[in-house]
Amino acid sequence: MITHQGAGGDMNLQANASGKDFNIVLDTANWPAKPWPENMVWIPGGDYMMGGNGGEARPDEYPVHEVKVNGFWMDKTEVTIGAFKQFVKATGYTTTAEQKPEWNQLKQQLPPGTPEPDASALVPGSMVFTPTSGPVQLNDFSQWWRYVPGANWRHPNGPNSDVFTTTAYDNYPVTQVSWFDAIAYCKWAGKKLPTEAEWEFAARGGLKNKRYSWGDDGPSSQNVKANLWQGGFPYHNDKVDGFDLAAPVKSFVPNGYGLYEIIGNVWEWCSDWYRPDTYEKDKQRGVVSDPLGPKDSYDPEDPYAIKRVIRGGSFLCNENYCASYRPAARMKTDPYTGENHTGFRAVMTQSDWKVKSQKHN
Asked: What molecular function terms (GO) are annotated for this protein (predicted)?
């Protein structure tokens, strides 16, 4: 039996020493032959019913439809700040948030109707969650999200939140990375972003038709399974799970496939374009093997924007506002957007791993 080992600490940039493997035993009998890629686990693949379960499911999670995925390797944790540092040092890569934005791109991240600023105000930065002083109506995200100059992966919560010049945060998930940043990292690492189908299959952890990655019992202050928001959103976090914002990786018990923080902590980029009718079209085609998602993006709530899919929820998810702490939950966002609750993890096929491992031998 796996028991939860609570990890205390406040991520208002106070370093936390958490991040050790839990005492779990994975069934590796059917894994490919060794060697295995470092810090990855084998997702065996198979058929499953993709889509919503329970009353929290949203319209774009339907219809539930059968999908087949082939086996693949997946990072056991979200890509960490330490790993991203290695990538940047090796390549000199500059992330989206570190570059001066163009207004046509930046406005996709801001509340509708935001007036165009003077050109001198267009400076590098990114979106940062800022708690409100008290209860607010939850239909206007501009009350708790703001564009902060100088916010980027090196300074995820603003210019004063430095995670680059110290190793204290190397085991935290990297955030403030756009979809394009995640793609660049994956290319360097010889990996790729997971498809929605791969991500959801992996997040279910081998469980069949369950609402959550751990079963059907919903998260609560008495049932702490992931780094989520407890208390009054977006003004007071009770931190029952031990964290205010992001937690170090390996802070919570992994799912059945050995994936840590696949639910909660930070959102994770997928490779797919977002469309609300993706599942309807997939079901019409019958059982699809390794679906790659639609060829273009469409969001009826924002028809002139392009969106990519993010999955898994974050430390901001709660039952009153988000409830995306479920394997089936889908969310969409502008691929240029960086936020301090969005990161990613990567995947790799066995054939790609064979090529990569042979190159290093």
From this structure: formylglycine-generating oxidase activity
